[in-house]
Amino acid sequence: MKLKPNISISSNGFVFNANTGDTFKVNPIGVEILEYLKNDHSEEELKNFLLERYDVDEITLDQHITDFLSMLRMYQMID
């Protein structure tokens, strides 16, 4: 899974989709996820990356990842 190249992300969480003109604001973890997805990582790799960085149980993390990736797909931000 990869973030589309037309997506711009600022360090403070402002996200711009140049294809659609949509803008979003994400929290610092959202920025980390988007930056990580720029490098074409799988959902499993993303999950492992976050489990190593944050004190969160796997079930909670799975739900949050599913929700966040669903939003990215809905807004045509990932391939």
Describe this structure in words.
The protein has helices spanning 28-37, 43-53, 58-74; strands spanning 7-9, 14-17, 23-25. It is of the alpha+beta class. It has one domain. The chain has a three-stranded antiparallel beta sheet with strand order 1-2-3, with helices on one face. A hairpin with a 5-residue loop joins β2 (14-17) and β3 (23-25).
Task: Outline the secondary-structure elements.
Blueprint: E1 7-9, E2 14-17, E3 23-25, H1 28-37, H2 43-53, H3 58-74
Antiparallel strand pairs: 1-2, 2-3
Helix pairs in contact: 2-3
Features:
13% strand, 3 helices, 79 residues, globular, 3-stranded antiparallel β-sheet, alpha+beta
Euclidean distance between termini CA atoms: 6 Å
Low-confidence stretches at least 5 residues in length (pLDDT < 50)? none
> Which strand-content bin applies to the residues?
5-15%
Question: Numbering strands along the chain, what is their spatial order in the largest sheet?
Answer: 1-2-3
Question: Nearest-angstrom radius of gyration?
Answer: 12 Å
Structural class: alpha+beta
Instruction: Find the count of extended strands (DSSP E, 2+ residues).
Output: 3
Largest sheet: 3 strands, antiparallel
Number of contiguous helices: 3
Q: What is the number of independent domains? A: 1
Characterize this entry briefly.
With 79 residues, this protein is an alpha+beta fold. The protein is built from three helices and three strands.
